Write the structure tokens for this entry.
Amino acid sequence: MSSLLQPEDRVLATLNPDGSRRWINPKLITGRFWRRRRLLGWFLIVIFVALPHIRVGGRQWVFLDFLHREFTLLGKTFFPTDTLMLAIAMIGIFVLIFFITAIFGRVWCGWACPQTVYLDFVFRPIDRALGFAKGGKGKLASMPLRVRRVIRWGVYLVVSFFLANTFLAYFVGSRELQEWIVGSPMDHIAGFIFVLLVTGMMLFNFLFFREQLCTIACPYGRLQSVMLDGSSLIVGYDKKRGEPRGRARRSTKGGDVRLKVVKVEEAQGDCVDCGLCVAVCPTGIDIRDGLQLECVHCAACIDACHSVMTKIGREPGLIRYSSQRALETRSWRMLRPRMVLYPVVLLVLAVAMVALVGDKGTFDALLVREKGLPFNVLESGQVANQARLRLTNRTPEARSYEVSGEDGLTLVVDEGTLGAQPRQTVSERVLILAEPGFFAGTRGRRDVELTVVDDQGSERHVRYRMFGPTGG
Ligand code: SF4
Ligand code: SF4
């Protein structure tokens, strides 16, 4: 007997009582939801692989160019000067996640998360073909174990390397990446190391870590308790219908558990305790124990139980998409405070975003005060304020700019002319000179407006507070 203290209850589905890893090897069940998930999964994989190669107007449609600090999303380019827009977009994404989760539960985890999609529809099929997962048969599965191991590592490596390169294309651009692929790794050593790192992380994740990413590492999974409420959609077991459980006979063949319902008595609940819903679960839990953090809502147990209910001639839906409230009280409440609050917040953010996007012209202009004295009085009597004008050219062509002020102001630009290359940000020192008497009747400060015009006639107005002698 082990000298270790035995836990009173199961701690983690992926741990044995002695603390060693319990490898989960779910049985494949090809029901209605599995077929739909597979269709969506492959659609998402195609999107992920194709997206960095889609170009509109000569530009990559989705391009997260950290090096040049430009982010192109669905053809729209954002610059570091768009901090407010990016902040609103980030807040919007978080609120949207909360909103979707409040309605549909962990639909993301089971249906669209890359971890689930790649594990269930890329890597597990490889394992099945090679006989490393339940349901594996065919020529490959009957080869010697050592050969199968080598093939498995090789295939995992190739797939992970391909995915790592696709991932990199989002950050360096697909054309740049193509040049890197045909060139020497020494010409782009940082990118090469990045690809190797991502490949290594993917190998570790899909070969070893697997469902543990969802059950112990993913922050989204751990936030479920605050995102869900009693009326959120969950995968649930209908205890009222299922209990008390009946009996099913189990037989084991070739390490695989075969389940056969042998006797169903009328007085029993609908669950025949066949264990199929547990055998198919990719996180190794028993959904009959209630809603659990480990449940990624993949609906495999629904498909499994559906097949059992059909076999014994009972109504399907003993495990189904439902809500905690509906399972307990047979009622469902659509109108809840969060159902109103989240859409209102989203609407406000959407309006702010539209207003900001509409306000963006062909360039951004920002005027900030330079370090040093707030103002100087020149020999000519003019009052000088030093500022720095930062211009961001948002267009794909080079542009030049002119800056002017209101009456009584003269502007002197360090470089004489202002110009910016496509999507470039330039910063120039500007001397704002005010005529003597400009500050008459003020308390030594006056708000002015400068106008910046590009060579295509687009203009932007920037406000600036000038300092000068008090009283005049
Ligand atoms: S309990 Fe059911 S829905 Fe949840 S992870 Fe397991 S099989 Fe998927
Ligand atoms: S698959 Fe259905 S019948 Fe079988 S143990 Fe699970 S809930 Fe019970």
Remarks:
- The pocket of iron/sulfur cluster (ligand 1) is lined by residues 235, 280-283, 285, 287, 295-301 (CB under 6 Å).
- The chain has three domains: 32-61+105-227, 234-329, 363-467.
- The first strand starts at residue 55 and ends at 56.
